[in-house]
Each structure stands twice: as C-alpha cells, then as structure tokens.
Amino acid sequence: MKIPSLKEVISAEEWQLRVDLAAAYRLVAAYGWSDLVFTHISARVPGPGHHFLINPYGLMFDEITASSLVLIDQDCRKLRESPFPVNPAGFTIHSCIHAVREDAGCVLHTHSRAGVAVSAQKGGVLPISQQSTLVLQSLAYHDYEGIALHDEEKPRLQADLGGAQFLMLRNHGLLTVGRTIPDAFLNMYFFENTCRIQIDAQAGGELNLIGAGPMKANANVSRQATAGQGAMLAWPALLRKLDRENPGYDS
Fold first, then answer.
1. What CATH number does residue 196 fall under?
2. Which of 156, 12, 140 lies closest to 96 in space, CA to CA?
3. CB-based contact 166:97 (threshold 8 Å)
4. What is the pTM of this model?
C-alpha cells in the first residue's frame, strides 16, 4: 500500500521523531526481536498534551514507514486520519508508563524467545556477562497477571517499574524506557543480548557469577565507553545499516 508522505504537512520535529521510530521498528525486525505484528514501540510527541506515535496495527515491523505511524492520544484514539487501525489493548502497558515517567520519551516492548525464556526463570537476570552488569544497574520486575488489558493492573506496573530503565515482565517479555528512541533501542540491545547469553551459558557447565566489585565498577562506565554520546554513538551507524539493507523507512 502506498502511503502519502506527511513530511510537508507536519513539523520538522515530529517528522524526525517519525523517522527514528520507523527505523527502530525495522531494526527490531532486523535483529529478530519482533513477534509478527504484535508488541509495540511508542514515542511521545513533544508539545502540549499527551500525544504519541505507535505502529499501524497489522503491518510487519520491517515495512513500517515514518508516514504510516499513527498519531494517538493517551487513550489510544487517533488524532490524525490514518487508513490503519490501532490496538488499544496493546497500548495499555505503554500508556501507563508514559503517564508517570516524564523521561519516557520512548517505550519499547518485545516478546523475543530469549527474553521470554529468562522472564520465566525464577532467578531472572543473572550477573554472568558484561552485558548483564549494564542491565542490572536499573532492572525491575513485574509479575504476570495475564494479557495486559485491564486498567487495574496499571498502578502495580507503574510501582514495579519505578525509575528503572529495564523492566522484565515475568513470563511475558522485556521492556525498556529511554529518554529518546535511540536510548530505548540501545537499552533493548543490551537487554536482549543479556538474555541470549544467559540462555546459551546455561546450556553449558557451572556458571561463573560476576562479583560485587566489578558490578559496582561498571555502574557508571557506559557513558565513558560511548565517548559521552550514549546511544547516539551507534544510532547513525544503525541508520546506515538500514539504508543498505532495508531502505524506505524514512518515507
């Protein structure tokens, strides 16, 4: 389906947000974290009111474009005409996090095989890899209450997340919060790799746990490791990867 470009009818700020969010959806697909058309990545649109961009329900993540993203309000009502439906039930988790976290410019949720596998383990994330030390600095857990459709679960989810950047939804999957879309994506990259490494390591011999000293030493090292740029050190390279392998997200 050919989607008319919105580039000339919206602000430059919203257009850039749409481009980055469409890129994030395609990158999630490229790295094998998508679950057909299910799960979501939401991004808050700057300005008055609580407006968000989310995926058009029914499109695969690797075909989402900047113009196909749907503008919604806090109750998942469409604010701009779109030929695509949205999934209010899928926005339940995202809306309650955006409502209490002013720093949550982007919320990214996955149902990946490794992420769900670790979420089903009683011990959760184990300190067995360098990647895990980054996640464990800001990790929270939320117990499974069934498919997240009900408003009464929202206060418990908000309380469990608190100020953390990583949330393990028990028996369900992974979620990251980021100030920006690149921040949320990089957080998920570390979270997903942490889980993949853990599942692989558990298939071998006895695990060697990382001690408290190295854990503490790694607490503030990520900013140094990215030359002070955080996620923006890798984001331009990720966009170049998309331009080579799956162009068109910025249309």
1. 3.40.225.10
2. 156
3. no
4. 0.94
